[in-house]
Amino acid sequence: MTETVATFAALLGLDDRSRAQAGATALARAGKLASSRLIAGPLRQAAAASLIDASAALLQSPLADILGGAWKKAHEIAQYADPRKHPPEQIAEVALGGHEIALKRQPALDVLLDGAPTGLTVACELKLKLEMKSVLLRIQGGRIVGARVGDFFGGGSYSCAGVTLAERKTSPFRLPGDIAFAPGIAL
Description:
The chain is an alpha+beta fold. The chain has one domain. The chain contains 5 helices and 11 strands; from the N terminus they run βαααααββββββββββ.
């Protein structure tokens, strides 16, 4: 069975409340947050839960946005940026075979209590590696305007303060339906 996912949070399972709660408990007991003198012991669990919520919100970025940014660099489609070869009114469909997309991001979250800064900043890390079987891109006017993605596999992890909050290797999954990029991603 193929699962449908649309965001990093869904891919990694951070939108699952029980997994998020377990992550908050682990974060409150380990690393920088546990040893912080800036946050009193009884408040660490609440601070950790807030970090998990902020992480889940941060990871609501659509996977399609990252994919589109990677596809625009594919050498197979560079020629479609030339308006003499491909007039702006022409829509080209270009198939990309199997390929891999890797991503690493390192956001930092500031810990606030009742809206006031605590002086504590927590470093986080997102890693993804996706293996695509096939993609059909629609290109018009030197821009990727849409895509149809076949099954793909992957894995990723998300950690904060050295604590892995989510890690997953997937079975085949899909993005929901066709992807539309408005106004398009420039080549």
